[in-house]
Amino acid sequence: MSQPSGTWYDTLTSTPVLIATAVGVSFAAIFAASSSKTPQQVKEQVKEVKNGVVNAADAKGKAAQAGASIMSAPAADLAPPKDDPIPSSELSQYDGSDPSKPIYVAIKGRVFDVTNKPEMYGKGKGYNIFAGRDASKGLGMSSLDIKDAVPDYSSLNESQMNTLNQWESFFEKRYNVVGKVVP
Ligand code: HEM
Ligand SMILES: *[C@@H]1O[C@H](CO)[C@@H](O)[C@H](O)[C@H]1NC(C)=O
After folding, report:
1. 161 C-beta closer than 6 A to ligand 1
2. Mind listing the domains of the chain with CATH numbers?
3. How far apart are CA 4 and CA 93, in angstroms?
4. Per-residue pLDDT tens digits for 136-175
């Protein structure tokens, strides 16, 4: 089987696996709503990823396959990254509560424009917790708990740092950088 090349492939091999192992499959229904898949289909794919990864030598290929089918594809047409300062007080306006405003997610101080994914980051949606703020710590911990949705990620251990870095790389490939968070 031919494999996609480069970092795109590397991201897909890891991210869904980390999601799947972090919390089990109980959230499947939330995400099925945002894609063409039924909760059962999502659950099966997540299970496949989990099982594929623990032992087999072809685990990477298997995970990539399942991952590719449940995660959105990288964007082909990203704009040059911007470095505009965005005060965190201002960032909080872009949390999806006003449909006329863009939706921003910050990771390690860099602000990504996720406006085209209201079904994930919009008000009341599964990942709204990451909207309008820098929740780097929560991303590293695979946590959707509001108390972890903070910018200071200094408490993360090595594997959590890996997770955070993988999310950063996931976002870099999909969303425009519109600025950096300033105090
Ligand atoms: C069993 C639990 C979970 C399942 C089944 C699940 C499933 C999914 C699926 C299917 C996608 C891709 C959606 C798409 O591209 O359209 C996704 C994306 C994502 N998930 Fe999860 N997830 C789970 C838990 C978590 C947790 C605990 C976190 C916390 C960090 C998380 C963070 C994310 C993020 C940030 C995205 C990227 C959204 C985007 O910008 O495309 N997920 N998840
Ligand atoms: C990091 O912390 C998590 C959560 O407490 C734990 O499951 C994991 O084993 C730790 N990893 C390392 C490398 O210490």
Report:
1. no
2. 6-70 (no CATH), 85-182 (3.10.120.10)
3. 38
4. 999 999 999 999 999 999 999 999 999 999 999 999 999 9
